[in-house]
Input
Amino acid sequence: MREGESLEVNELAHAVVNAAADKKASDIVMLDLRPVALVADYFVLCDGQSPRQLRAISDAIAQSLKELGERPLRVEGTPDSGWMLLDFGAVVAHVFSPELRAYYDLEALWKEAPIVVRMQ
Output
């Protein structure tokens, strides 16, 4: 465990995956960035089918991690923009509309990062 962190980073990333899955996010992917980048340890990517679902997913992630003693360092985007980012430092959650996820294609950008979790 890193100094000052209440959860192992891996546990934090899995909590993000579980919160997204609980709100029926689709195509959930957790990438392990540690071997390829310093920007974060893990990215969690998922889709929501509407602005309402994007909000529900991002709210569930924030609430779930708050219950574990973790708060996002920042939150970017809005449900209507089609992309919300919740930055927990070592773990960054990207909640996309399917169209914007395809457009930005972060999986291709970070193709060297091992996939830890993939849930359709």
Observations:
- The mean pLDDT is 93.
- Residues 36 and 113 are 6 Å apart (CA to CA).
